[in-house]
Amino acid sequence: MRIAIDMDEVLADPISKFVSRYNQDYNVPLDLTMEPGYEFFHHIPEHINHKWYDYINEAGFFRDLPLIEGSVEAVKKLQEEHDVYIVSAATEFRNSLVDKYDWLSEHFPFISWKNIVFCGNKIIKADVLIDDRIKNFVDFDGRKLLFTSPHNLLVTDYERVDNWQQVLEKIQQQPAAKL
Amino acid sequence: MRIAIDMDEVLADPISKFVSRYNQDYNVPLDLTMEPGYEFFHHIPEHINHKWYDYINEAGFFRDLPLIEGSVEAVKKLQEEHDVYIVSAATEFRNSLVDKYDWLSEHFPFISWKNIVFCGNKIIKADVLIDDRIKNFVDFDGRKLLFTSPHNLLVTDYERVDNWQQVLEKIQQQPAAKL
């Protein structure tokens, strides 16, 4: 079975990096209660709200993101039985390409270059897609697992996974049809 | 209709770049008759045969490749009626990522970041794939157009296009079924 896995907010945690960049530059309290349905930048004071876009374009931004808990072990486990691809919308940010490549080499060295896809629209063919953004599900034919992130908490239309333990349980329980 | 287009030896010409790098470093004549069925490195003297791998890994190698004749105009024309994606096996060479991104920005600025795919295996969903490597056709469901390059001249199993004019003619003549 071919399983495609998104990076940001699924394997890697950009939100805590945004918070640390804001803290580095501004002496303002950040309201990061992260209410359901809101993006992190909705919680940033208005006069510096646009800065997230500068941060995300910085060389190095994606290089040292923290791991989402349990992701390395779970992906390794999935790879024992399945054909695992990492599929990330990286082409939006030029400098993210090499950062994401190096980040994967560091944390997921068992993923071959053949199994990495850096793209814009996810025009991929796979049996399962694990992603936090429902826009990536629209044209996807396989099984969709919505990985929980504050911005998608109000979405009810998709099968949801709150963490990597749940991903493993769901994939072991209900294997999708082979391609 | 969604049309996926490979980069090397289809839009960009890495072979002439290899030749110029060899000429820069070695005072040897290069037999680049490019016989049908052979890769360019089969024509390099044996003691420096391995150098192509160093060259291709150099930062900047893919940044200034010459264009394949007619490619810009043809892709622009295809884009008027179709959903065009550039799909390149870029993840094999870390440094190629940003070089290919910048090369596309320079020569194909009308291609959105949403329509770029840098990958290893081409696990994409499209109606047409234009590529010079038949390995990329194996798992592809749509119409396959083999773009002529010396290494594939002995291949007879696929619909062949020798240049961009022929691509336009073939796509106008025989539109594939919509996805």
UniProtKB/TrEMBL annotation, chains A, B:
Protein's GO biological process: pyrimidine deoxyribonucleotide catabolic process
Pfam families according to UniProt: NT5C
Superkingdom classification of source: Bacteria
GO molecular function: 5'-nucleotidase activity
Residues the record marks as active site: 6, 8
PANTHER family: 5'(3')-DEOXYRIBONUCLEOTIDASE
Family stated for the protein in its record: Belongs to the 5'(3')-deoxyribonucleotidase family.
Name this polypeptide is given: 5'-3'-deoxyribonucleotidase
Natural source organism: Pedobacter antarcticus 4BY
